[in-house]
Amino acid sequence: CIPYGCSAQGYWLNTPAAHFACTNTRNTTEHQTCLVPRKVAILAPPYLSFYYPFMASMHCGGRVSSRWSTGKPSRSSSLVVTAKSSSSRVGTASGGRITGRAPKLADPVDFESVGFRLDPANNRWIRDDRFAGKFDQTLATPKSGTPYVVWPAIHTLLVSKGLRSVTPEEALALQDQGWTIVDVRLATDFEQVHAAGAVSLPLYRYVEGTGFWDNVKKAAMAIGFAMRATERDPDYQSKALSVLKKNQKIILMCAIGGTLDTLVDLRKGVKPAIRDPERAFGRESRSLKAAYELINAGWSANNLFWVEGGLQQWRFRGLPTEGTKP
């Protein structure tokens, strides 16, 4: 992953110089437990026309849909998720059972009141409830690749569903209990090194398109970063169902893990946790984005965990690995 645990695509969207102009169109199609997207187009400044335009636009304001699998709006009953007290860290066991850790939240997450927008000056998403209720759907449409739901919407859904994290040691213990570790990094990275016994199910793939913007993206990544350009796999859900049993108990692992926390607690017991403006919606990662895809494919959050710190922490703590360069 490049900055913020994103793919090459995610990196371009976090470019400080980018400026955006948004247009919105309505799409009333409803998906099961899915945040139905509203198309958003993005424009980059002329002086960045060679690198950035193909990467697509970010939504300048939005809210998260409160529609669920019934296909009916649920505006009368909001789902509110509040932060656990700092004393309940534990993602550990309750009577020998590993329960995971809930995110630490600065504010409650309510589908009816959560709003967000992109702060172009600092190039980050910020929570702005003035935008709550103004948009039912949120989608970014890149010049290269397929449309995708933006991170604040994904974060809100994952928190509301009760997704929890586990430490690498807890993940290893769960693996011994029959859970499957699913590595969502690129297949080439998986071949080099991965957690012992893990299954590969990459969320991203190398760019397969041959259109103009696809080629621009490939050239930009090769020349600017000596890397191969990647894109989200539009068939991820169907591939997951072909590799795994639906609602199988799995633990998601990427390179860095990411976080759903919106509070930062650096000095536990000494000073209270603080708000980090860079973490208004946690910090995105491939494992968290994969969790969103799997939930929309029919998984229950009770059968999903993600590994804090990802493979980096797994290796740092000396846990077993496999591959050509373990």
Automatic annotation (TrEMBL):
Alphabetized InterPro entries for the sequence: Rhodanese-like_dom, Rhodanese-like_dom_sf, Str14
CDD domains xrefs: RHOD
Pfam families: Rhodanese (PF00581)
Domain Rhodanese: 175-323
Lineage top rank: taxon: Eukaryota
Gene3D superfamilies registered for this protein in UniProt: Rhodanese-like domain
GO annotations of cellular component type: chloroplast
UniProt cross-references to PROSITE patterns, sorted A to Z: RHODANESE_3
Protein name: Rhodanese domain-containing protein
Species, as recorded: Volvox reticuliferus
